[in-house]
Amino acid sequence: MIRWAAILILFLIAAPHPAAAERVALTFDDLPTLSLSEDPAYATTTTRRLLADLRRERLPAIGFVVGDKFEDTPAVRAALLGRWIRAGVELGNHTYSHGSPNKMGAEAYIADIARDDALLRQILAPAHRTPRWFRHPYLETGPTLADQRRIEAWLAANGYRIAPVTVVNSDDQFALPYDEAILKGDRGAAAAIQGEYLAYTAICLDWYRKAALELLGRRPDLVMLLHASRLNADSLGDLAAMLRTRGLTPSPLDVVMRDPAYAIAEVQADANGDDWLERWSVTLKKDLDWTGFQDPPADVVAATARLDTEP
Ligand SMILES: [Zn+2]
Fold first, then answer.
1. Which of 30, 49, 152, 214 maximizes the CB count within 10 A of its CB?
2. Cα–ligand 1 centroid distance for 64 (angstroms)
3. DSSP assignment of 222-290, as one string?
4. For 18-68, how does the pLDDT look when each residue is reduced to its tens digit (9 = 90+)?
5. Domain residue limits at 180
């Protein structure tokens, strides 16, 4: 009897854990929409399609709100954000004016976060919710470590956790040229941009997974940065299939953030807006292998530079 118990204990210790599911959190920035057009009808269609596909594909998600979008039409802004709230998608803070702490300084930057916080609390109050997550615009966390710590202290004191990013597919580079094609009614051009976007996303997913595996010696759960664009509204089914064929399970941000990798402390300021793999590589003193990494297609980048008139 005792021998059997000992064997059983040995078996339990030695038995391999079942392969942990590799999770990915989908995070959508620049709500209500990242778009070439502030036409409420266009924004509403984008929002409806995004939310319908999130539900159909059973994709947990979080949206990060920029308060000054649709500032002149607060009723439109409230209606668009109300759709996300009713769909059960959590809303987080992405600052009020999408500024950079490098340009504004920490104090003005914190005031801008607080302004977005006030708007979010007002919008979320009827649903008895409060904002819990913050995403830095441009992933810029502060020009010095002291600035970064000061911003982090405000966030923590006000109930926020920071949403890191460990997969980037530069979807914002494709979004405006796609809008332009859709608004012109040029379906051929739109399909071509979407094709380039999906091909580039596959390259990025594979590179980030490989880089994370090499850096940590295991596959961490991932946080993917996306934007609330028409392009993503029209591509969510393809994106979901791309994740699932790679064995990635779309999961809530809270769950992904339980991965211990996200506890790796930053030891040096990162003024460049780098993703968190690059930040971890600094802390762990281990270079990332950039082999296989590609920049977005030059024609798409050029089209975005032409269309993006914001400073
Ligand atoms: Zn943004």
1. 30
2. 8
3. EEEEEE--HHHHTTHHHHHHHHHHTTEEE--HHHHTTSGGGGPPP-S--TT---HHHHHHHHTT-----
4. 456 899 999 999 999 999 998 999 999 999 999 999 999 999 999 999 999
5. 22-307
